[in-house]
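agent> Task received from the user: take the single chain below, predict its 3D structure, and emit structure tokens. No templates, no multimer pairing.
agent> Plan: (1) validate residues, (2) run structure prediction, (3) serialize to tokens, (4) report one or two observations.
agent> Step 1 OK, no nonstandard residues flagged.
tool_call: predict_structure(input=
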Amino acid sequence: MLQRIQTIYLLVSALISAGLIFIFPLFQVEGHDGRWVYAQHDMVILSLFLGSALLSLVTIFRYKNRKAQFMLGRLNIILNFFLLGFFVYRSLNVSGETVVSEKGIGMFLPIFSIVVLVLANKAIKKDEDLVKSVDRLR
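)
tool_result: status=success, residues=138
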């Protein structure tokens, strides 16, 4: 059902992945007058963030099939880990210059999304266990 706590967790994850990427910068480029780079400046990063948000929204409406919902949540966690690994790789490559570049809070958004998705999967698993225990009593 839509009035479960995992719906709120998944909405928060979608908000983090689709909304906050336009507010918080990812990192600062020193060579170009110190301008900040946001997710919309790189199409790969933008598509991964928006894919994560879309996957969260699809997961919300799969409430009748909790196993599929749980699987989509895990897939979204893997996508966010991939995005986080991409940021770590990029930050390690960028840190080789003579001037230290600044990293923005946007690089940590996948971590927040992963935490919320883990909480959503925990709630989905709890619902599935509750349904199984009620079915056992019948």
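agent> Step 4: summary for the user.
The longest helix spans residues 66-94.
agent> Done.
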